[in-house]
Design a protein that fits this description.
The chain is built from 1 helix and 9 strands, in the order αβββββββββ. It is mostly beta strands and about 200 residues long. Strands 1, 4, 7, 8 and 9 form a 5-stranded mixed β-sheet that branches. A 4-stranded antiparallel β-sheet has the order 3-2-5-6, with no helix packed on it. Bound molecules: fe (iii) ion. Fe (iii) ion (FE) binds next to strand 5.
């Protein structure tokens, strides 16, 4: 039986939430119930790849975890992960900001739909409940993110979905920025750990 998005999130928040780096780009292992430190995590990990901001960033997005509470369309997804440093240590209090297109590939330039920010919790964990964005001309499905550890440099990047035909045709796509996505009974769940 598939887990729900809520049970995915609860298991993430109640577990030690160890980094899942090194499980490989097409990992598709999704979200293991029990996570162990990978060999990669014993070494200095690579910083998360930076990508451009694109034309749709907007300042002053609200503080929130739920981006789709008043939204009808779109497939629901809960995305979650850690902010860690190169030595796999979680970085509490890191700032995360997300913005993404809706289920028709449009950005909200008037209001703040599908835009939000939050601080990683005391274990470096972050999560958003939202929808799977649609692709739009020239771009495969993606989320935009900004991530900044306290006092650190600001990382601007994008996250992608596995198995998308358009990935191969989007020159920005990079397999190192793939979410690990699993099906849930009420949508899907994705995991990504940022290294900053
Ligand atoms: Fe975009």
């Amino acid at each position: 039986m598939l887990q729900t998005r809520r049970s995915f999130l609860m298991s993430f928040l109640s577990s030690a939430a160890l980094p899942v780096l090194g499980s490989g780009p097409a990992g598709a292992q999704g979200f293991p119930q029990r996570l162990t430190l990978t060999p990669h995590c014993d070494d200095a990990d690579e910083l998360t790849l930076a990508q451009n901001e694109g034309p749709f960033f907007k300042l002053n997005a609200p503080l929130c975890h739920d981006l789709a509470t008043d939204v009808r369309g779109g497939k629901r997804i809960t995305i979650a992960g850690l902010v860690i440093n190169k030595h796999c240590r979680p970085i509490p209090g890191s700032l995360l900001e997300i913005w993404h297109a809706d289920d028709l590939g449009r950005y909200d330039d008037v209001g703040f739909r599908f835009r939000g920010h939050q601080q990683a919790d005391d274990k470096g964990r972050w999560w958003f409940n939202t929808i799977v964005p649609a692709a739009y001309p020239g771009r495969t499905r993606h989320y935009h993110f900004k991530v900044q550890r306290p006092g650190g440099r600001l990382l601007t990047t994008q996250l992608y979905f596995p198995g998308e035909p358009l990935n191969q045709r989007d020159s920005l796509f990079d397999h190192r920025l793939l979410l690990h996505v699993t099906a849930a009974s009420d949508g899907s769940a994705g995991r990504y750990d940022f290294v900053v």
